[in-house]
Amino acid sequence: MTQYQKLVQGLEQAKVPCNVKLFNTGDIAVECGFNYPDEVFSQVWDVAEAVGLNTHRGFSICADVHGGVVEIQQRVYGGPKRYSYV
Question: Is residue 20 very low, low, confident or very high in pLDDT (cuts 50, 70, 90)?
Answer without folding.
Answer: very high
